[in-house]
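Title: Comparing notes on inverse folding

I've been comparing how different people in this forum approach sequence design from structure. To keep things fair, I'm posting one structure and asking everyone to reply with a full sequence. Here's the target:
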């Protein structure tokens, strides 16, 4: 069984039950699982692979709980830069519908490479347009190629424009096809065991792109196979208007009617919720994928993350699709989560006694998101959202998923009084090493498992073709 030793880290953040932060420490891995964590002097002296982490901070791998990897093909699209969600979707739907199976591989590799180099070791992806014989299999095989722990969703859209939905009819599938393929990918790929590298999630896209029947039947199918459920919810006021107009219910109540509140469900965004709905999430165990960059980029709003955490709602981070971020950088997302939670304090009345006017009043301490809280949401929070107890912390018996960052750099100079907080407060840095399942996936900031240069070249070529399907003739 292969072994790996990571030693001499200046600081090691465990996220274990005591939230220990260890100096001059490391960990020993056997067969993808952590066997020992502690001071370097107490670890075995040798292993098949030895990583010297002197001058680095070592952290548990981050968990990304919401993405659309195929959108790396449409980053910074001129027509989609300065509009909010509904018009942004209308611009992108027909372009995404021209994706090919080969492009699925390139976009998955590009998105996962960027994530891994920013410290992400487990990724949930929400693909919901399956044109031109594209299949979930294309993405799962790309994730295995690069070596990232992957929760893939068989997403879906079934409510086209002609029936009152937002997407064009050409982008939706019929429900029997969706459910048959969902069953197929669950039976082919879903591995619920400890240490699993591949899991399947069922994920109808949103209340305005699927029928009530599909929501209900998807939940039944998922629960009969023990897989989790995911969708977008409470992202914009447009969505709220859609469910109020069509179903006479707010989005959360509509989901409850559909049988979609439970501890096997998590929702992307969950920005526009009231206190009762937050309480409902806490009571039923429904989780949240917080996507601050996307929410800012599309002017969607600020999710009440501190309220969710205070209520005991499971919250993880999501970079969201690369066409609405337009980065797949999870460390950047952790920083943005911390900053956006603070901006909310400045924009809204204090949560405490109304006589308080100063954001610095000690009674408002609990409203501030700290760097360590952001790190916890990025690791343990994401693991909880995905229903995993084997990732998110560095302790014996946990998966060997971690990353390191060089501390002795210009970017961190002057911040070494608290190197742990520096990873969130200072500009997001590339990982020196990212290890997933005991395998070195990123080395010196570069993906070590796949030659990315030809992938980037093919990805860029196809991305230009997608955006310009009928190039003008050159004179
Ligand atoms: Zn999304």
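Reply #1:
Here's my take.
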């Amino acid at each position: 069984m292969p072994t790996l030793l990571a030693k001499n880290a200046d600081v090691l953040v465990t996220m274990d039950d005591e939230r220990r932060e260890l100096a001059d420490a490391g960990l020993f891995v056997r067969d993808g699982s952590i066997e020992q964590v502690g001071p370097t002097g107490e670890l075995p002296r040798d292993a098949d692979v030895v990583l010297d982490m002197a001058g680095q901070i070592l952290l548990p791998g981050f968990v990304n709980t919401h993405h659309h990897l195929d959108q790396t093909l449409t980053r910074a699209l001129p027509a989609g830069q300065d509009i909010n969600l509904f018009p942004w979707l209308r611009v992108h739907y027909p372009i995404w519908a021209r994706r090919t199976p080969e492009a699925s591989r390139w976009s998955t590799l590009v998105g996962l490479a960027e994530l891994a180099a920013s410290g992400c070791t487990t990724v949930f992806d929400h693909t919901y347009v399956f044109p031109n014989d594209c299949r979930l299999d294309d993405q799962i095989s790309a994730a295995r190629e690069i070596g990232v722990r992957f929760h893939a969703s068989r997403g879906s859209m079934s409510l086209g424009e002609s029936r009152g939905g937002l997407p064009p009819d050409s982008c939706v599938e019929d429900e029997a096809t969706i459910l048959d393929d969902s069953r197929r990918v669950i039976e082919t790929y879903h591995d619920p065991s400890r240490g699993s590298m591949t899991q399947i999630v069922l994920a109808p896209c949103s209340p305005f792109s699927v029928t009530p029947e599909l929501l209900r039947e998807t939940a039944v199918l998922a629960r009969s196979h023990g897989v989790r459920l995911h969708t977008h919810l409470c992202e914009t006021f447009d969505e709220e208007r859609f469910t109020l107009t069509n179903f006479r219910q707010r989005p959360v109540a509509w989901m409850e009617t559909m049988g979609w509140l439970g501890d096997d469900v998590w929702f992307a965004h969950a920005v526009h919720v009231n206190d009762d709905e937050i309480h409902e999430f806490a009571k039923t165990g429904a989780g949240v994928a917080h996507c601050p960059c996307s929410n800012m980029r599309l002017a969607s709003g600020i999710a009440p993350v501190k309220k969710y955490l205070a209520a005991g709602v499971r919250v993880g981070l999501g970079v969201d699709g690369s066409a609405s971020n337009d980065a797949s950088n999870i460390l950047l997302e952790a920083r943005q989560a911390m900053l956006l939670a603070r901006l909310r304090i400045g924009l809204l009345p204090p949560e405490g006694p109304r006589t308080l006017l100063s954001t610095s009043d000690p009674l408002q301490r609990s409203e501030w998101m700290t760097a360590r809280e952001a790190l916890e949401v990025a690791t343990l929070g994401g693991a909880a959202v995905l229903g995993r107890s084997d990732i998110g912390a560095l302790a014996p018996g946990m998966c060997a998923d971690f990353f390191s960052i060089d501390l002795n750099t210009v970017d961190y100079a002057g911040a070494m009084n608290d190197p742990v907080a520096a990873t969130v407060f200072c500009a997001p840095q590339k990982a020196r090493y990212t290890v997933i399942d005991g395998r070195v996936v990123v080395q010196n900031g570069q993906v070590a498992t796949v030659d990315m240069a030809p992938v980037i070249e093919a990805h860029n070529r196809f991305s230009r073709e997608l955006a310009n399907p009928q190039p003008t003739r050159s004179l």
